[in-house]
Fold this sequence. Notes:
36% helix; 23% strand; 13 strands; four-stranded antiparallel sheet; alpha+beta; disordered C terminus; elongated
Amino acid sequence: MKQNSNKITDENFDELYEDSIEIAMIDKFVCDEISRQIHRYIKGMSGSKAIMLKFEEQLSKLSLPEKENALARYIDLNRKALSGMDWKIIMTRASANYCDTYSYWLKLITNRRKIIKYLHRMKAKYIRFHTVFEENGKFGIKDHEGNILVHALYDFLRTPYVYVDDLCTMPIMAEKNGRMGLILPDGKDTIIADFIYDDIQLRDQPPYFEAFLNGKSVLIDRYGGKNHQRGSRTNFSTTCATPSSSFE
Length: 248
């Protein structure tokens, strides 16, 4: 049991006492509920059953901290998933799974100070958005802690919005010296597709990228594998915008 450094008395017990077992179990059940919410999100976005099962299979291999980080990364790239999440309902479900009796659950859920503390804890774990930063007229990306994921070397950056992601790191579309390419947000600017293309578009199914050079197109997967296409440029609904710091 973890206790606050201040002396605990009968009067301040509920305010200062922290039950480490309760916190650990609430964390677990919150994670389960967030995973269920993402499952519903994928289904609502017309994802297939196979995709949902793949998502759950990937999560099942992870420890609790790894699951929390994976779900936070997923939410970061799929921020619309938050629109259907009610944090108080998530906390209510998680606490109900933890509590053995209705009276115990009611006491917990009506402890306003404790619930607020748990809500802040939940949001700190799962809302970890990256940010775009500018340096000398070029753009880069930092994670929620300020660590550089992509150095400020590019005229344009855009992450792919892929709601069927299987928790693998997706490349970022970037422009440098007037040419488009793909890089990983790994802090090393690892190049997945060389900066040789006139344009790169995002597709709604694998392989997720279509690159264009001199009027010809090539499909590129997340690992840099290519599948050359015949014919002229094909129109897709999602395209790269003009160079800017736009970042979805």
